[in-house]
Each structure stands twice: as C-alpha cells, then as structure tokens.
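Fold this complex.
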Amino acid sequence: MEIEKLNALSPLRAFDESLNGGLGKGNLGVLVSRHGIGKTACLVHLATDKLFRNEHIIHVSFSGNVEHVINWYKEVFRQISDGRSLEDATAIYNGILANRVVMNFSQDNIPIDKVLSSLETLIKQGSFNADAVMFDGYKLTMATEEDVKKIKQFAQDLRLEAWFSVSPVRPDVTFDENGVPSSIIKYVDLIDVLIGLKYNEAMDKVIMTLVKQGPVVEPKLMRVTLDPKTMLISE
Amino acid sequence: MSDILKLRNIGISAHIDSGKTTLSERILYYSNRIHTIHEVRGKDGVGATMDSMELERERGITIASAATHVNWKNHPINVIDTPGHVDFTIEVERSLRVLDGAILVLCSVAGVQSQSITVDRQMKRYHVPRIAFVNKCDRTGANPYKVKAQLIEKLDLNAVLMQIPIGLEDKLEGVVDLVKMKALYFDGLSGDIIREEEIPSHLLKEATEKRTEMLDTVSLVSDELMEAMLEESVTEELIHKAVRKGTVALQLVPVFMGSAYKNKGIQPLLDAVVNYLPDPSEVVNTALDLNNNEESVVLKSDDNAPAVVLGFKLEDGQYGQLTYIRVFQGKIKKGDELYNSRNRRKFKVGRLVRMHASSMEDINEAGSGSIAALFGIECASGDTFCHPSLNYSMTSMYVPKPVISLALNPADKKSSDNMAKALNRFTKEDPTFTTYVDSESNQTIIQGMGELHLEVYVERMRREYKAIVQTDQPQVAYRESISQRADFNYTHKKQTGGSGQFARVAGYIEPLKSNEDEKDYEFVNQIKGGVIPTEYIPSCDKGFQTAIQKGTQLGFPIVEVRAVINDGSFHPVDSSDMAFQAAALGAFREVYDKAKPIILEPIMKVAVEGPTEFQGNIFGSINQRRGVIVSSSEDGTNCTVEAEVPLSEMFGYSTVLRSLTQGKAEYTMELAKYNRVPQSIAEQLKAEYLEKKKKEQK
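Structure:
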C-alpha cells in the first residue's frame, strides 16, 4: 500500500474527526488514565501518524533511556507498516527519522522552564520546525497552574500542538467513570482536549472518551478504541 | 603449572580519560610487577608502563592493547589494556574475544558516557561478564550513586553496590565493604597498607541500608542466599558465591569504587576480579571446523586436548615480530608443531614468552586459558593455530568497512621504502586498516575508521619507521550504486585477422533492494538453452565484478547491484573466457548511466556530550553539517546530543566543537549507515572528480 492511501485509511482520521479535525496548533491535548493502560503507545501512534504526514515531532520523555522511546517508535511503525503492507517501508522509516527528535530529561523534578527553554533551543538553534510536542510521562498532575499556563503560552508562541500522556503520581487519587483522575480537574480550563482512557473488560478494549473539548465539558465516547494487544488505536 | 580455576583473563574497558591506564598501572604496582608508579602524562617523563608506544605516551592515550601478566593472592591474572577511543574499536573488539571478564571503568563525575555505551554494547555482543569500578571519587562532583543509577538506566545492567564511599571529593578516605561490613582505609605512601576498621558511626545507617539493598538484589539470582536470608544465616561466603554466580551468568554487575590516582580502592577491586569474574573453564568458546562445513565446535579448556590457539595481536618489537596468543584448548610447548588454518602452513613453536607491558619472561609452555606471546611467527592478526590433527578457525570477528581514506606522498626513496615496510606491518596488525595503490594517480592510499585512526598510523610511520610522508586531505569512502533497472544487449567483437574474439551478453542490472545480508553484488544466471555455454557463465560474473570495482561517477566501488543475464550468443571458435569477461565488462559500463547511478556516503552516528549551557551551540553545529538530531538527553548539568551526520561534514569537528564550547564538550562517532548523497552535492563531487582526472591526464 502507498503511504497516502495508508494515511487516508488510518483510524487516526476517525480520531481527528471526533475532535472536529484535530487538536490544532497552540492547543493542549491530554490523554489520561491509570498506569499501564497504554498511553505511551497511544501517544507514539499519534506522533507516528503525524510523521507519516510529513510533520515534525519532538518527543519529550522523562525516563532516562532514549533507546526505549526509539524502540516504541520502531515497534509502532512495524505494526502499522506490516498491517498495511506499506510499500518502501524502510525508506519511509528512514525518512521520518529526520523529522523526529527525542528529548530526554532524567533530572528529578525538572522545572518546566528548563524543559521549555531546551525545546526552544532545539527549535530555534537546531532549526527544527516542530509541528507538535509529545510530552510522555510529564507529571502534569503535580504541576502548578502557573506551569500549565507557561506550556500553553509556549504552544501558542511557537505554533505547535502539545500532547500529554498523564497518569496521576499519588496512589490515593480517585478516577471517574471515564478514567479521569480527580487531580487533573484543577486545570481542566487550560486543557483544550481531554481524553480519558479506560479498560473495558467486556469489550477487551481500552475505550476512549472525549471528556472535554474546547469549552464544552460533555463526555462522549470516541469512535476509536485502543487494542490492548497491539497497543494501537483502532476503529 | 598453575591451576586453570585460579586463572583470570580480564580487560579494562572504558571511556577515554576515565583513568583506565592509571588503574592498570596501580594493578601492576600492587601485584608487584613494577616497583614504582609512573603517571600517564607524568612529571617523571617515564609515562605509564602499559602505554608502551612512544606515541601513546606523548598523547596520553592508549592505542594498542598490551597484555600483561600479574599475580594477585596466588591467582595469575592476564590484564589486557584496551584503547578507549572509538577509532580503535577493532582493538577493543579483538581483545574482547580473548577475555573472560572485564572491569568497566567509569568516571564518578561524568558517569556513563557515550563511549561507555559503545563499549558495553560490544561486551554484550561477546557475552563478557563484568564488574564496574567507579573511579575518580576524589574529584569535585563525584557521585558513585548517580553512576550506579545510570548503569541501570542507560545500560540496562543489574548494577549492585558492593561498597559505599567514606567521604567524597577531596574528603575521600576509603570505602565501606558491604559484604564484610567493615571500613577499609588505604595507608602508606602508595596506599599499600589496608587498614580495616569498624564502620564510622555516621555511615552505619546508610551502610546497613545499602547492604540490605545489595542482598535483596543478589538473592534474586541465588535461591541458596534467599533461603539463608530467611533463616538469617547469611555468611560472607554465601554472598560471594551468589555474586559470583550472578556475575558469571551476566545477571549482575557488582559496583566498586575508589580513586586509582589517590591509590584508594584498588586492592578490593583485585579481590573482586578473583572472587567474581570467571576462570577460562567457565566460559564457553567455540571454533569453526573447516573440515566439517564450518560446523561450530565447543572448545574444551583441557590441557590434554589438541591445541587451539588464537593470535589476537601482532606487535613489532625490538626483537622482531611478536604474536600475542590466547590458548583456548589444549596446551602448547616450545618445539610443538602448530598449523595455521588460514594459510595452511605448519610451523614450530620457538620462543614462548609471557609479557609484561614492555619487558618479558621466557616460559616453556602455555596451558588452556593462558595468554602468552610467540616470536617469529609469520601470520596475520586473527589467525587460528591448531594441533595438526585439527583444522579449526575461531569464529571470524566482525570487521567494519573503512570509511575514510588518505593519500600518502613519501618525501624520498628511503621514506618510500620504509613506508612500504610500515604499511605491511600495520595492515597485518589491524584488519580495519587497509592500503592500496591507486592505479590512476599512482599514489598510495590508506583507509581506516576515522581521521584519528589514520593520523596515528602516519605518525607511527614517521617515528617507528623513519618514513617522512606528506598527506593529502582525507577522503570520504563514497560508494556508487544504481537507482533503477536498465537493460543491456552488448556484443564484444574483434574478428579482424588471426584468432578473433566474440561474445554477446544480454540482460539487465537493477538495484539490490531490502538488502538483508548486506550483499554488495549478486549475479543471476537466467540463460536457457545454452545460448551462452555453461563454461562461460563464470566469465560473465567475473566481468561484472571487474566493472563494479570502480564506478565511473567518482571512481568508487559500486554496491547493491544485481546483474542478470538472460540471453547472449557465442562463436564456436572465437568465443573464450576472455571474450565473455570483456563483454560483461563492456555491457555494464555501457548500461551504467541508464540505470540512474547515485552516490552513497557514510553517515556517522555522532554523540556529543557537554554542559547543558552549550546545548544550543551543539544543535547549531550539527544542523550546519547536514546532520539529523536523533535525541538529546539532559541530566541536570550535562547533556548528550545524538545525531546522524555525513562523515564528509565531520572533518575538523573537534576543533569547531572545542571553540564553540570552551573545550568543555567532546564527541565520539561510529559508522551508522550509508545514505544517498543529495543531488547538488553529488554534482559537485562529480565535477571535482572530473577535474582531478583531467589534471592527472595532463
């Protein structure tokens, strides 16, 4: 299959449709759930879809091992390209590598200013015109309102989408029926798109609920789910 | 005859400047091999004993891996000092083949650096059990705990602290042994006297915690220790046994610490080598049986078995050629007859010696597992010698292809002769270093793994062989290839008088895609009905192979190409091997342009490390070099930027980087892959090549 066709058939089109065309530059999107549901895979799938469409991505991780992140991308790419018998897969993979940078911060409790200033350095001095930044594992629930405002400002100034995968840090947090923890509610106003992920045993799928979009807080189920085996978004 | 169970063959591997040579020096000192300690770049002008070559002394780096034999508490240990710079990786890889275990030296301030990652990857490839030594704990900013965490995080090693420091930086006094639960201090001028005392009260709590942590980790690999912990009957012996088991099985990496420069923590490290690293009989080594279809055979560390020996390093010393060997099976004695399985020649073992860094000791025999050196053997590095009843070859080692070349112009006739001698020696010593004479320019070209790699050899020619040579600009080893299929139908004909020549070949060439075995060339014969007689098929193959040796775009080899023949014709009298070779060659040359030829260039994986404040400059410098930033990692004050950059853009990068970062950043690089050169640059390269050719013709 050719890359254009693969993009057209991608379940991510249904994902974008649920968001009325996508998150949009200058906005913050948050994927939230308990630990171990598959947020990282989900985030990497979102990023890979953007890379397939020639967008530039910065993946920000806080784990300390860049290799792990790169392996996630390899694996997600392999699943998609095998599933659709993508033509010229090796060349396409090599091509998208040039449009992705992984930035890793292994310092504990790194201030958000530091993260944003490193991102800006990469974008400006490294001439890397990022279309989106994927924050994987940023402790958004521990951040102050001020921090979140700074991130939003950054996304608007540099005209990029900012996606977060978030799991609560504290163990005593309660989750609502959509998988959204109570600890995130305090900045819900600053978040443009909030998606809750929750495992549904009967369906054996991780269901995705669009909890909030723009000013509208009216949870509705999305057409896409997360396959717990492949960890990919599917229709 | 020493017991094989007591023998240890170890390597010391690390990042450049983490103090590996200093550590080796201390090991020699404490095991009474040398009587005084000389520093690397020392004030006494003697230099460290392991850096035997003059050049290494001057530059403060270790180039060749000298093997040396020491004794520690009645255990013979062979120490192989390995180079830290990535340009000499082949040396590191070759020594890994003959090691049974290794000490991974890390700097307590810089921690796990990019070179440590490369070295660790190599060790994983050769399944080398290792213990870690966190050196330079006397430096400002020393933090062995951080280094241990990085071993786990960055290298995925199950690192476990066996000691904690008593004081750090300028207050480093000694270490607490978490097995014995005693404090160790190193007294005397050179730390010779170990004073064992109770743990200082302010460290007791931490030591107890870390010991529990250590036992928890270690007990996971040993049921015996686990049970003992439940029954509260843990003994020192049980812990040693469990740590040894885990280390040998590559499930644990015990971490030790100290400061080689300040003579602290070396003796416990030597104890750990003996206690935790495997003896030769515990390591499985295999060879290929050349008489049995290269079937893999497991070697026995048994002195009575027929001998199998690997020559892993050549050195041209003052007494002639010295071949470092490791005996993998059986034993060898003076006067024994051995068989070199590469050149199928037999030879007699003459003088057999055991090496100290630059002095030696004559021995009569070398048993299984031992490392020794032979005199006067005609061989190349990596040759296998075995008992005449066997025809084994040790598994071939992975040899990367050269990425850079340099033209040499000797100053006079004498230099030219000496240069030839030197090159003959170097190419035998180092398989990644190759040389040839360019048929067009008549220049001698050397090829290798990087700028520094070649520079060092040019320097050695001057110093050791008195060959004065001028060098041109280093040249990137480009490759040529094709991007689409093109058909040919070519007749080679010379039938005017006398015996003629006639051959016609038809078929096509096409790119060899999704190249899994990394084959450079494939020949496919689709001839039906004998339109080309079978005896001339190999001639066609040969003709194509001649053609791809040198492409017409830049004069570099053509790779990733498949040549298919499916038609042709012959003449009963005038066709010959030569005629078909000429036809295939002509066909390829004619069709090459139609196949849209492209140029490939080596892309290096570059890792730059430096203070975070210079991150922007580092990004910028990569961006200016057609580089692609792969990742950037920050851990507070330091950052590591990984990128893929064309080799041609990397010349002189060290100077640029130094000035951009006030000398605070450094970089390493290795070959990542070959990529297509962008069109504009390809045009420029072709124009330069034409220019050069024209000049030569004049």
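Residues 533 and 570 of chain B are 8 Å apart (CA to CA).
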